[in-house]
Amino acid sequence: MRGKVLSFNGSTGLISGDDGKRYTFSVSDLMGDTVYVPAGSTIDFEASGDSAVSIYVIATALGERNKYVAALLAFFFGLWGVHKFYLGKTTAGIVMLVCGTIGWLLVIPGLIMCFVAFIETIIYLVKSDQSFYEDYVAGNKSWF
C-alpha cells in the first residue's frame, strides 16, 4: 500500500495510507539503510493492524530548499545574507545584511560576514541532503 508520512520524530512516526487510515511506525520498520523520513515523503508499506511495516521510501519530500542553491547564494551573495533569507532564517539574514552593508564602515564586520558566508558554502556542499534538511530546513539551525 502507498501513503504519505505525516510526522516522524526520529524514532516513531505516523503515516496516512491511501486507504484513508493512519498507521504508526518506528524507525526499525524502515527498510534498507533509511533512518529518517521527512514529513510529506511518499512511501510504500505493508499494513499490520494499525501499524506499518516494511516501509520503503519512494519519494522523499526534502522541502523546497535546495542545498546547492543555498551554497551558490552563500558564495555569491552571502555577504548580504541572501542564503539566510532563502532558508527562512530572517534574523540571521538581517544580521548579515546589516554587517555586510553598513558594517563595512568598521571593516571588521564585513570581513567576518565574508568569512562566515564562505564557511557556510563549504558546509552546505559537504552535508548530505538529509542532514541539510534536518539542520537548516526543518531545524532551527541558523549559523554553521
Rg from alpha-carbon coordinates = 19 Å
Widest beta sheet: strand line-up: 3-2-1-4-5
Helix content: 25-40%
Please write the string of helix (H) and strand (E) elements. Answer: EEEEEHHHHH
What's the overall average pLDDT, rounded? 89
Number of helices: 5
Q: Report the β-strand fraction as a percent range.
A: 15-25%
User: What is the rounded distance between the termini?
Assistant: 40 Å
| Strand tally | 5
Overall shape: elongated
Biggest sheet descriptor: 5 strands, antiparallel
Structural class: alpha+beta
Question: Care to give the gist of this entry?
Answer:
With 144 residues, the protein is of the alpha+beta class. It contains five helices and five strands. Helix 1 runs antiparallel to helix 4 and helix 3 packs across helix 4.
